[in-house]
Amino acid sequence: MTVALIDSGFGLLSTTGWLRHLAPELDLLLLLDPDGAPWGSKTASFVTERLLTAAQFAIERGAQAIVVPCNTATVTAIDALRERYEPRVPVIGTVPAVKPAAAVGQSIAVWATVRTTASKYQERLIADHANGRPVARVACPGLAEAIDHGDTAAATAAIADAAERTPEDCDSVVLGCTHYPLVVPEILRSLPSGITLYDSAEAVARQTLRRLGRATDSRSTMGAIDVVLSGRPGSLPTGGHAYPVGRALAAAERVPRDILTSAVTRSPMTSPAI
């Protein structure tokens, strides 16, 4: 069984890592778009076209589920993708984990790309699930791009800027871009101790398995991991090897749980149910 994951860059790594940990026997098709990246700064029509093109490629390659581990692509084009392929092929999107954060926290900040921060989708999510909690919308311009480029200086600067704009009384930060879990240690260093981070990757992986009617699997059988770069067969770009989950995926072995969770050193990473 093949599951396709589509993103412009390394935002798909964390969800891919969880799928590889929970169900290593699955064949995974990773569709990155270096020619069109970053999607966060592109028009809605551009993102929709790239996502639909990648999804059609995945279907032709035999994918039985399509995962969009990208908040920007989800808020922009998930409806178009589902209209085209569901119910024949499950389509699983990713949204910021506002609901679980509001169930526990008192004051929330959502860190996201500029497009996601400004989207009506995120506003509806906050209106429907924040339970009246104050929610600060913290756009993080350039952070996802810096992570894709492995530019640690630019990532540090973007994180520091976002932390400066996060309210001091905030006790919960929702990572509203799937790139951001890759730099959790730096995010934690920028924030006061005691803040809880919320991330979607594990929940998206588990939802994918539920939609496929599959349980988690402890067998040692390893499925294939194929990488396609803007329609061309390739391998995980070297920048992905800068992150532990990227190195584990490049080795094509089962991803250990501690690689997916060990980055959180001062507060728990919590995954929402979606």
Helix fraction, binned, reads 40-55%
Order of helices and strands: EHEHEHEHEHHEHHEHEHEEHHE
Shape: globular
The biggest beta sheet is recorded as: 6 strands, mixed
Question: Which fold name is given in CATH as the topology of the largest domain?
Answer: Rossmann fold
* Number of beta-strand segments: 11
Radius of gyration: 17 Å
Share in β-strands: 15-25%
Please describe what this structure looks like.
The chain has helices at about 15-20, 45-60, 70-85, 100-105, 115-120, 120-130, 145-150, 150-165, 185-190, 200-210, 245-250, 255-260, and strands at about 1-5, 25-30, 65, 90, 110, 135-140, 170-175, 195-200, 225-230, 230-235, 270. With about 270 residues, it is α/β, with parallel strands linked by helices. It has 2 domains: about 1-95 and about 200-260, Rossmann fold (3-Layer(aba) Sandwich), CATH 3.40.50; about 100-200 and about 265-270, Rossmann fold, CATH 3.40.50. The strands form 2 sheets. A 6-stranded mixed β-sheet has the order 4-3-1-2-9-10, with helices on both faces. Helix 1 (about 15-20) crosses helix 11 (about 245-250). It is globular, with a radius of gyration of 17 Å. Mean pLDDT is about 90; it is low at about 265-274.
Keywords:
274 residues, alpha/beta, Rossmann fold, 5-stranded parallel beta sheet, 12 helices, 11 strands, 42% helix, 16% strand
What's the quick description here?
This protein is α/β, with parallel strands linked by helices and about 270 residues long. The chain is about 40% helix and about 15% strand.
